[in-house]
């Protein structure tokens, strides 16, 4: 008890100190940083709730301010204005040479591709529906688009994945077409934010959340994987309530999801549950190695040990492969440095083979045992 | 006399008596009227039909039914329905008097002619249970009222009637063999009566018999002693034409003990003229021809399924009108079509439906030309054509595609996909499936 009181006093003292020293970054922290970690503000006056994206090499940020969309260099702090409008989604391409932004229009959404070098518009695409999220993989932009048709009893939600190579007519894939009760649609924006898919670290599949709202039953969310080439899906879990989150970890071989009570870490292809963490899991993010997790405003190691915790207003943006974490707190963007670096991704020479094995596994051509054996064989070589 | 008793009770009695007399009188009049009316009804048909269809009336008059079984008793009295073509006499009407014949007929393959051209497979251990849906509702043993035959459903209304129902209605119409109004057994004792349906490319039993030694004896030694259709398949006048038949029309033998029981039935019939050993050897040899011929069609079947698994059929089922029962998928079972398919499936149809039947039924009917040249030789030549067509369809397998040359892994992926499809349709055991996959995956490293 005494120890706890001492700890509280220390934290309070630190917070007070930070106020005096003007180090506003520390107010984002709910506990002192352990040795080796540091935090710094990298951008301010960012529009609250606006989308943010960081380039794959961690050098550029796409941020939205009151006066539009900007490209910001993390190193120099220099900024370039890309648009005067406020996008609803932004994303860099895997090479970091382009950034795409989706804007709402009177009859749907407009997607614009900008060159990161000079900011010129490279391409544009308009489509019906509201773009909720943008993802990108090799030679393809993925827009998560929703349409809600309102009825007296509630509404109908259609969510689809719009796949665009940047040149030709995009291809649409239906992800969810569900009738929703009025009460389910009460907090529409939060609901749609929950459903945003994530791209696997290999860029070959998405982790999606699919809504079910059967009459006379409580609504639920299914967590699943969808391979982008084969379109095969695998159900990972069914969450009994509408709030929940899911995230890839360990190079996309593990999934962490929160079911409102616990965070569960599972091997999705063998249905094995590896670990449970006592937290509702409404906010989840993981470093590329999967060794560090952001779970409900706390930064944890895989063994559950708390690294540090953050103010309730803080949200993770992205874990960078060099061990840094980009997070936002209200209008500020902060960078936490000193986390374990390293990626569990395979060397480039083995990447094609791994992608092929993952595709075969998704299609059911090989089972988990065969997949593990084949991945292991390559490592032995 | 009652008038002398003018009491209240006397009057009542008199009224009652008069009522009784009137009732009796009316009853007699009604009875007379009805009997006259019935007589008029029978005479009514004849009075017109003697003028309009005199041959039909003459046939009826000359039959065992003439003057005993009236028109109305079989056809009913709804003349409008008859004019609409609904006056056909169902077998159930005949069955009221000809009970035994009706039951024997119903138990035979003829008794399910409308529901399945291939016969029920429920007693076969090797049957595909999915086929039951063609004739039955889930969980029911009663046949569906609608005909579940893909080839039937593909036809025009006119062709269905003329080309399908005229044979398959044998299930519900005794007239299919006995003709409409005659009852002379001579008609149905002539093998020619069977020829209406049991001829042609799909099951030429009549031609086989006619040109076999059995058939050549018939005109020479006469129906009394020569073996004909009826003698072997309707032994002792039974209406169960499936008597002694050991396999389904598709060539799948019945399981034991049904198989042995039916074989003994046929041997008993053969033994009327032949030594039992000879008959046994002949039927066993025909069994072997059936197994050998089936092996050829199974090989062809596998080639076509392999092409389907690889997406090589031209056109693929997804790119042509859907199969009326199974939708946009490959069908090579008893519901195989000869139209709206690829060329190789059309060859498979010929092989399974025409040439297999000629080889196998030719062997059972002791016809060497049918068994060999029309059947066996055609089957083997069909297989050459199917292999050749398959090679053509697979010909571009190793050729460069628009996306570049086919890689080793692309080949492995295709083989894995083919293996998976074969395993899913139980063409491969789990053990073989895993072994074959391991071989392919080992080839990657």
Please summarize what this structure is.
By secondary structure, chain A is mostly beta strands. Chain A has helices at residues 2-21, 188-194, 348-363, 368-380, and strands spanning 38-43, 53-54, 60-65, 68-73, 79-83, 89-92, 98-105, 108-115, 121-127, 130-137, 140-151, 154-164, 171-181, 198-199, 205-212, 220-227, 233-239, 245-249, 254-258, 263-267, 272-277, 284-286, 292-295, 298-301, 306-309, 314-319, 325-329, 332-337.
Describe what this molecule looks like in 3D.
The complex is a heterodimer of chains A (381) and B (445). By secondary structure, chain A is mostly beta strands. Chain A has helices at 2-21, 188-194, 348-363, 368-380; strands spanning 38-43, 53-54, 60-65, 68-73, 79-83, 89-92, 98-105, 108-115, 121-127, 130-137, 140-151, 154-164, 171-181, 198-199, 205-212, 220-227, 233-239, 245-249, 254-258, 263-267, 272-277, 284-286, 292-295, 298-301, 306-309, 314-319, 325-329, 332-337. In chain A, the strands form seven sheets. In chain A, strands 1-28-27-26 form a four-stranded antiparallel sheet, with no helix packed on it. Chain A is globular and about 50 Å long. The termini of chain A are far apart. The model of chain A is unreliable at 1-24 (pLDDT under 50). Chain B is mostly helical. In chain B, helix 19 (408-424) runs antiparallel to helix 20 (430-442). The interface between A and B is small, with 13 and 10 residues.
Beta strand % of chain A: over 45%
- How confident is the prediction overall: mean pLDDT of chain A? 87
Q: Estimate the helix proportion of chain B, in percent.
A: 55-70%
Oligomer: heterodimer
The share of residues in extended strands of chain B comes to: under 5%
Gap between N and C termini of chain B: 127 Å
Strand pairing plus helix content of chain B: what structural class? mainly alpha
Number of strands of chain B: 0
Treating each run of at least 4 consecutive H or I residues as one helix, how many helices of chain A? 4
Which percent bin holds the helix content of chain A?
10-25%
Low-pLDDT parts of chain B are: 1-10, 31-41, 398-405
Radius of gyration of chain A: 21 Å
Low-confidence parts of chain A = 1-24
The helix-strand sequence of chain B is HHHHHHHHHHHHHHHHHHHH
């Amino acid at each position: 008890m005494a120890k706890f009181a001492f700890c509280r006093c220390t934290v309070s003292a630190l917070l007070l100190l930070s106020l005096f020293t003007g180090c506003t970054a520390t107010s984002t922290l709910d506990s002192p940083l352990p040795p080796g970690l540091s935090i710094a503000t990298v951008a301010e006056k960012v529009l609250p709730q606006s989308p943010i994206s960081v380039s794959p090499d961690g050098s550029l940020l796409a941020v939205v301010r009151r006066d539009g969309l900007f490209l910001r260099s993390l190193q120099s702090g220099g900024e370039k204005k890309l648009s005067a409008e406020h996008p609803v989604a932004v994303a860099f391409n895997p090479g970091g040479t382009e950034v795409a932004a989706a804007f709402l229009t009177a009859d749907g959404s407009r997607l614009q591709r900008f060159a990161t070098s000079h900011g010129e518009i490279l391409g544009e695409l308009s489509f019906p529906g509201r773009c909720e999220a943008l993802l990108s993989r090799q030679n393809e932009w993925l827009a998560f688009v929703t349409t809600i048709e309102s009825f007296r009893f509630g509404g109908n939600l259609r969510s689809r994945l719009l796949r665009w190579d940047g040149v030709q007519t995009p291809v649409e894939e239906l992800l969810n077409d569900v009738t929703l009760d009025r009460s389910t649609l009460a907090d529409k924006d939060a609901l749609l934010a929950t459903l945003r898919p994530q791209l696997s670290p290999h860029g070959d599949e998405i982790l999606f959340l699919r809504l079910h709202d059967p009459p006379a039953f409580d609504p639920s969310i299914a967590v699943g994987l969808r391979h982008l080439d084969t379109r095969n899906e695998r159900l990972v879990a069914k969450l009994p309530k509408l709030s929940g989150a899911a995230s890839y970890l360990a190079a996309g071989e593990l999934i962490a999801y929160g079911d409102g009570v616990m965070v569960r870490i599972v091997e999705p292809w063998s249905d094995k549950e590896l670990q449970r963490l006592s937290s509702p899991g409404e906010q989840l993010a993981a470093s590329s190695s999967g060794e560090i997790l952001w779970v409900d405003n706390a930064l944890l190691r895989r063994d559950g040990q708390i690294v540090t915790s953050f103010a309730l207003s803080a949200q993770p943006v992205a874990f960078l492969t060099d061990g840094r974490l980009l997070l936002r707190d209200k209008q500020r963007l902060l960078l936490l440095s000193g986390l374990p670096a390293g990626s569990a991704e395979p060397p480039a020479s083995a990447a094609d083979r791994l992608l092929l094995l993952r595709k075969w596994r998704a299609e059911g051509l090989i089972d988990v045992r065969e997949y593990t054996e084949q991945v292991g064989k390559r490592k032995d070589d | 006399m009652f008038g002398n008793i003018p009491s209240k009770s006397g009057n009542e009695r008199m009224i009652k008596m008069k009522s009784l007399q009137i009732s009796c009188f009316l009853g007699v009049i009604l009875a007379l009227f009805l009997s006259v009316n019935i007589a008029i009804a029978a005479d009514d048909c004849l009075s017109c039909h003697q003028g309009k269809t005199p041959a039909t009336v003459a046939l009826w008059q000359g039959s065992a039914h003439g003057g005993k079984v009236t028109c109305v008793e079989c056809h009913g009295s709804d003349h409008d329905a008859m004019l609409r073509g609904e006056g056909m006499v169902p077998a159930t009407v005949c069955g009221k008097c000809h009970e035994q014949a009706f039951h024997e007929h119903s138990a035979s393959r003829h008794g399910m002619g409308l529901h399945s051209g291939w016969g029920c497979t429920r007693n076969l251990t090797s049957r595909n249970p999915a086929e039951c849906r063609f004739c039955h509702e889930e969980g029911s043993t009663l046949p569906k009222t609608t005909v579940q035959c893909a080839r039937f459903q593909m036809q025009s209304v006119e062709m269905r009637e003329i080309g399908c129902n005229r044979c398959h209605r044998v299930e519900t119409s005794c007239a299919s063999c006995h003709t409409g109004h005659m009852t002379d057994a001579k008609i149905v004792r002539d093998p020619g009566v069977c020829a209406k349906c049991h001829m042609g490319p799909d099951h030429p039993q009549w031609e086989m018999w006619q040109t076999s030694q059995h058939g050549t004896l018939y005109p020479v030694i006469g129906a009394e002693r020569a073996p004909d259709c009826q003698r072997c398949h309707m032994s002792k006048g039974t209406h169960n034409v499936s008597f002694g038949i050991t396999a389904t029309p598709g060539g799948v033998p019945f399981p034991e003990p049904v198989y042995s029981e039916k074989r003994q039935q046929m041997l008993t019939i053969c033994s009327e003229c032949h030594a039992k050993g000879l008959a046994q050897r002949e039927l066993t040899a025909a069994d072997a021809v059936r197994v050998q011929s089936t092996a050829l069609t199974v090989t062809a079947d596998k080639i076509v399924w392999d092409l389907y698994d690889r997406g090589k059929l031209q056109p693929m089922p997804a790119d042509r009108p859907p199969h009326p029962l199974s939708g946009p998928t490959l069908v090579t079972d008893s519901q195989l079509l000869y139209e709206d398919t690829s060329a190789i499936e059309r060859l498979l149809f010929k092989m399974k439906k025409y040439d297999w039947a000629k080889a196998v039924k030719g062997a059972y009917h002791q016809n060497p030309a049918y068994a060999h040249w029309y059947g066996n030789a055609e089957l083997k030549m069909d297989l050459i054509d199917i292999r050749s067509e398959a090679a053509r369809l697979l010909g571009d397998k190793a050729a460069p595609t628009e996306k570049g040359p086919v890689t080793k892994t692309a080949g492995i992926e295709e083989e894995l996909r083919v293996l998976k499809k074969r395993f899913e349709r139980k063409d491969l055991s789990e053990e073989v499936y895993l072994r074959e996959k391991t071989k392919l995956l080992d080839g990657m490293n």
